[in-house]
Amino acid sequence: MLPGGRVRPLVPTLATYGVLVAGVLSLQASLHQDYLLAAQLVLTASVLDSLDGTLARQWGVASALGAQLDSLADLVAFGVAPAVLVVTAHFSDSPMLAALLASAFAIAGAYRLARFNTEEKGSFFSGMPITAAGSALACLSLLPLGPNRGWLVPITLLLGLMMVSKVPYYGGKSERSRLFLTQPIALALIWVAPELGLAVLGSFFVLYGLASPLLHAAHAWEDRLAGLRGASK
C-alpha cells in the first residue's frame, strides 16, 4: 500500500509527465528516422495515459491542475508526435503536404481536448479520443506501404475529422480499473515483441474507432424501443 496523502497525488502526476516525456522522445525518434521507436513511445504513452486519470479518481486526488496537465501532455504525445511520425516517415519529400497534414491533425487534437475539458462528462464523449486517434495513426504509419503511401493522407484527415466530430465515443471509465493487470502485458508487448504489440494495440484502437459509434447507436435504439414499449402499455 502507498503511504499517506503526500505520496498518492504524485503517482498520477508522474504518469502524466511520463506521457509528456514519451511524446517528446517520440518526436526526437521521428526526427532521427527511428520510426519503430517513435511508435513504441506513442503506445507507451497510451498505456500511461490510461493510468493517471484512473488512479487520480480512485484515490480521490483528482484536481483541475492535473486535468490541464493531462490535456497538455496528451496534445504532445497523441496530437503532435503521431503527426510528425507519419509525415517524416512518408512525406518528407513533400514539405508543403507534410506541414499541412501534421498541422491539421494537431489542430484537430487540440480542439478535441479543449472541447472535452468544457463538456459535461458522461459515459459517452463527443468525438474520437485523441489517445485512440494518435495511437492508431502511429501504428498505421509503420505499415509496409511502398509506393502506396498516398492513402495515409485521407486516413490522417479522417482520424482528425473523427476527433472534431460529434460522433459519440464510449469513455469506458468504469472498466479502466479492471485493466491494470493488462497494462504490464501491453508494455511487454510494445518493448519485447514490438511488431506483435503494434499489431495488437493498433488493431484495438482502430476497432475502437469503428465500434464505439455503433455501440452508442445500438444503445440509443434499445432505449427507443424501450420507450415505445412503455408508451404502448
CATH superfamily: CDP-alcohol phosphotransferase transmembrane (TM) domain
Q: Uncertain runs with pLDDT below 50, 5 residues or more?
A: none
Q: Which architecture per CATH? A: Up-down Bundle
How many domain regions?
1
By DSSP, the count of extended strands is 2
Largest sheet: 2 strands, antiparallel
According to CATH, what is the class?
Mainly Alpha
Radius of gyration: 19 Å
**Overall average residue pLDDT:** 85
Strand content: under 5%
Straight-line N-to-C gap: 54 Å
General form: globular
Estimated helix fraction: over 70%
User: What is the SS-derived class?
Assistant: mainly alpha
Helix and strand string, N-terminal first?
HHHHEHHEHHH
Helix tally equals 9
Overview of this structure, please?
The structure is a single chain. With 233 residues, the protein is an all-alpha fold. It has one domain (10-232): CDP-alcohol phosphotransferase transmembrane (TM) domain (Four Helix Bundle (Hemerythrin (Met), subunit A)), CATH 1.20.120.1760. The chain contains nine helices and two strands; from the N terminus they run H-H-H-H-E-H-H-E-H-H-H. The protein has helices at 10-31, 35-58, 64-90, 95-118, 130-140, 152-164, 173-176, 182-192, 194-232, and strands spanning 124-126, 168-170. A two-stranded antiparallel sheet has the order 1-2. The model has no long low-confidence stretch (mean pLDDT 85).
